[in-house]
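Structure tokens please, single chain.
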Amino acid sequence: MPTPNPAAMDFLLTRRSRPAKTLLAPGPEDAALMPMLTAAARSPDHGKLEPWRFIVLREAAMRRLSGEVAACGVRLGKSDEDIAKAQDAWERSPLCVVVVEVQKDSPKIPAVEQTYSAGAVCLALLNAALASGWGANWLSGWASHDRGFVETALGLASHEKVAGFIHIGTEGAAPPERPRPDLAQITSWVSE
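Here you go.
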């Protein structure tokens, strides 16, 4: 018979990301962040390849990246509105953890499973931050897919890519609930 964990289940049933634009200083100090990173690193990882790593960005780095995002947007021909929206999260949130997907050569573990593992790390870190009482949001955006930006601004190697930017800070405003999927429309039950 399974042993339920009602508190964990209640958290999962009611969890809600906080928009990055509502995250304020302070963010977690290193001692508070380490358990969150530890929880994220316990994500499913077929083959124990650890196809991901973390870059922790504090406020000064966040402001620098705001300028890098603007330069990237101009280079890509993005509108002023798109650039301002992309910069906003970097200018407001006090901390961001970049989850970097690091593909590893493996004859047994397909690349797509490594990508899924990096995505699982993003969700685990997001949930760990929320469970720790912080506001948090998982973002990516057009700059995260630009090789010039990720290699120059973040120092990624050519075989690495951004799985997600997990912004973490003090919750400035509780978000309203949003519509959730209709399980009857997306679930199939197979008995035979």
